[in-house]
Amino acid sequence: MNTGIRAGDFLVAGLALVLVGWSYVHFWHSEPAASLEVWVDGARHASLPLIESRTLAIEGVLGASRIELAPGRARFLASPCESKRCVHTGWIDQGGMVAACLPNRVSLHVQGRDRRYDAINL
Amino acid sequence: MPVETVTTRPEDHRIAWLAALAIAIHVLEAAIPSPVPGLKPGLANLVTLLALLAFGWRTAVWVSLLRVLVGSLILGSFLTPTFMLSLAGALASLLALGLGRALGRHWLGPLGLSLLAALGHISGQFLLAYALFIPHPGLWHLFPPLLTAALIFGILNGIIANLALQGVDRIGTPREGTASRT
Amino acid sequence: MTAEIRKRLYLLPVLIAVLLAACQPAEPPLIERRFIALGTIIDISLYGIDAERADPVLAAIERDFHRLHHDWHAWEESRLTTLNTTLQQGKRAPVPAGLAAVLEQARGLNRSSGGLFEPAIGGLMALWGFHGNDLPGKVPEADAIAAWLAERPRMNDLELEGGHARSTNPRLQLDLGAFAKGVAVDRAIDRLRDAGIGNAIVNAGGDLRAIGARERPWRIGIRHPRAPGVLASIETQGDESIFTSGDYERYFEAEGKRYHHIIDPRNGYPARGTASLTVIHSEAAVADAAATALFVAGDAWPQTAADMGIERVMRVRPDGTVELSPAMAERIRFETDIEPEVTLRGLP
């Protein structure tokens, strides 16, 4: 009969363990969740994960810009500037995409999952 | 009108019984809610494995394919994506078992075979799901935990298979072709 | 045998740990600098160089950008606005050597574009209200546009000689908006090269020039003009500038119609028929001027591209259909779920 633990069983179990470990490294580790860098007046202000939905206020040179974070994307909700171009930009969701309120000196930069693009031609 | 008699061999009975058992488990497993789609203990696979070890390759293939076919008919999923995933899993699992078998039965025991079958099963399902249904890279995020589950259940099923076969050994080894059902 | 293997099994965790460590992607040696100038965000990425060597060059580039911003601003007090005022008074104005070279280059591109790239358009831009940080809300009077067209100033009305400039047309008002970014990007790349830096992207609000590569080619996404996200991507080769002019960059809506900032100097109204136009060319200044000129050219863009020596062009029309020059078709990769309807248009 074919019962009992054999040498090959250990080998298969070992290889299976390696395979499982490798799968985590390969499928999980190389693709960290997208994050959002918030820059204020030429300096990095914060780096926020784009995992859950929330809104927050960023203090710029004119006043507070309200931004919304959501899984994988972000946008300006309101801004103290006059033109509201930042709000009109809408959602940014790809690594390298930018939304900016230049009068308030606040800009949002999506950092890609595996950074598919080094820059986005706008 | 001439009556045609269908003669059944003991092997056919065996396949029918084992397949019935596998189908019952298959349907039960489908009824159990799972936190992650595709996450199942794989007890139906265990029947295939036992069929292979106790009665050989031919029986195992029949049991496995009958389970997928009849199981899907009972669940009403025949030719739906669920069925195709099930079939892909069964075929990949059989392929892995065949490979394991080719390595030699003295070298590789039930535990190793069970692991091979479990890993083959989930890999086959995943490849098909990715190729046909959800060609989105995000799908692969599910792969590592499912592979982990396959590892755990593969080992557990291997241990169960070992115990079951040891039990059979004590009662008396059924021999292929001569064993009969009572 | 089994006992031995069991012993070996203890090695497995070690093996896995080693494998995990080996697969850990090393942090790419990428240096990034970001600042605001020329009314946009300037992003500089350098690859394969240490920070100590990069810092002084980056600081110099940042100073350059700020200086150009102050020299060339089209409506805030700048050397350019001073020059414009003097020219409009019909007087001879002194032009610094740097600016003179830029104006000469602009004049050359104005000629090759058949007047579609028109730096003398400042008066019309002001009329439309695009000279201001805020967007205009209404369309100018048709009479005002007609008056500008009647005297339509051109780059040829500008005489440049011996460090001085003079205009024969009182309506001539220089606006380097479609050109300054390109020139500034070229200067930044020159500075990087002088410092021995061969792998870099200088990105001025999405218009950029890329030299060299990182561990793979630089990968540039091109924004979809009508949807969020990326329409297509290009991997740069060697030394290439990618510039896009789009009707979504600065625009206002009045009575349900979109009025954007790319004005056709031939009729005085925003150019129609194109949503975005992308060109690839080695020099950023040329690419910048060409993106504008080809956008204005509308359906006739292949002729303008040929005249300006541009081989790689992508035009997205407002209905989402795409036109490509054959050389562009070889390089572009669409990134949308459904590939857009594409037409190849050969250059004459």
Automatic annotation (TrEMBL), chain A:
Annotated TM spans: 7-25
Any Pfam family hit: NusG_II
InterPro entries, alphabetized: NusG_2_sf
CDD domains the UniProt entry points to: NGN-insert_like
Keyword terms, alphabetized: Membrane, Transmembrane, Transmembrane helix
Annotated protein name in UniProt: NusG domain II-containing protein
Species per Swiss-Prot/TrEMBL record: Thiohalobacter thiocyanaticus
UniProtKB/TrEMBL annotation, chain B:
Segments passing through the bilayer: 15-32, 44-66, 78-99, 111-134, 146-165
Keyword Transmembrane: yes
Superkingdom to which the source organism belongs: Bacteria
Pfam families tied to this protein: Hpre_diP_synt_I (PF07456)
Keywords assigned: Membrane, Transmembrane, Transmembrane helix
Protein name, per record: Gx transporter family protein
Species this protein is from: Thiohalobacter thiocyanaticus
Lineage: Bacteria, Pseudomonadati, Pseudomonadota, Gammaproteobacteria, Thiohalobacterales
Automatic annotation (TrEMBL), chain C:
Predominant localisation class: membrane
Gene3D superfamilies linked: ApbE-like domains (3.10.520.10)
Cofactor needs: Mg(2+); Mn(2+)
GO MF annotation list: metal ion binding; transferase activity
Domain of life: Bacteria
Enzyme Commission code(s) on record: 2.7.1.180
Membrane topology value: Lipid-anchor
GO CC aspect terms: plasma membrane
Cofactor note as given: Magnesium. Can also use manganese.
Keywords, alphabetical: Cell inner membrane, Cell membrane, FAD, Flavoprotein, Lipoprotein, Magnesium, Membrane, Metal-binding, Transferase
Name of a matching Pfam family: ApbE
Location(s), subcellular: Cell inner membrane
Residues annotated for Mg(2+) binding in this entry: A178, D288, T292
Catalytic reaction(s) noted: L-threonyl-[protein] + FAD = FMN-L-threonyl-[protein] + AMP + H(+)
SUPFAM superfamilies documented for this protein: ApbE-like
Protein purpose: Flavin transferase that catalyzes the transfer of the FMN moiety of FAD and its covalent binding to the hydroxyl group of a threonine residue in a target flavoprotein.
Record family assignment: Belongs to the ApbE family.
Name by which UniProt lists this protein: FAD:protein FMN transferase
Organism of derivation: Thiohalobacter thiocyanaticus
